[in-house]
Amino acid sequence: MELEAALDWAGQRKNGVLITIRRDGRAQSSDIVYTVVDGAVWMSVTADRAKTANMRRDPRVVLHLTDPGSWSYLSFDGTVELSDVTTAVDDNTSDLLVKYYERVAGQAHPDWDEYRQAMIDEGRLVAIFTPNSVVGQTHGA
């Protein structure tokens, strides 16, 4: 499957499994919510999670998506880049998290000040995954 077509399919969904590499080389999987932005996959993560530590140590990840109803799946292989942790309501990461929210939710948050402060309180950042290849198959929608 071509990467562009696979990203189009992925862009119609928002739930997947992120697979990172633990220090000892074993895989770790995490359910995530994502959005596709200009050929990259954005995820909101917290600084204190194991998946974030894994990505800091080794940026190679797999994003696995399924649609069991149509017997479809895709596994993207690539690397991730982590933004800074948001520390101020007007920093670049806070702005990225706003864009992420709007794309995932499909609407504006009812209180952006509250949202931005929550992102600071949770120690959030944006993981931007750039896929290099994809395997799998898609059927129907």
Notes on the structure:
The chain is globular and about 40 Å long. 29% of the residues lie in helices and 41% in strands. Strands 1-2-3-6-5-4 form a six-stranded antiparallel beta barrel, surrounded by four helices. It has four helices and six strands; from the N terminus they run αβββαββααβ. With 141 residues, it is an alpha+beta fold.
Describe this structure in a few short sentences:
The protein contains 4 helices and 6 strands. It is an alpha+beta fold and about 140 residues long. The protein has a single domain, classed as Electron Transport, Fmn-binding Protein, Chain A (Pnp Oxidase, Chain A).
Percent of residues in β-strands: 35-45%
Fraction of helical residues? 25-40%
Low-confidence stretches: none
| Overall pLDDT confidence | 96
CATH 4th-level superfamily: Electron Transport, Fmn-binding Protein, Chain A
Would you tell me the structural class of the helices and strands? alpha+beta
How would the blueprint of this fold be written?
Blueprint lengths: L2 H8 L4 E7 L5 E11 L2 E7 L3 H8 L2 E8 L4 E11 L9 H14 L6 H11 L1 E14 L4
Note the main attributes of this structure.
single chain, 141 residues, alpha+beta, Pnp Oxidase, Chain A, 6-stranded antiparallel β-barrel
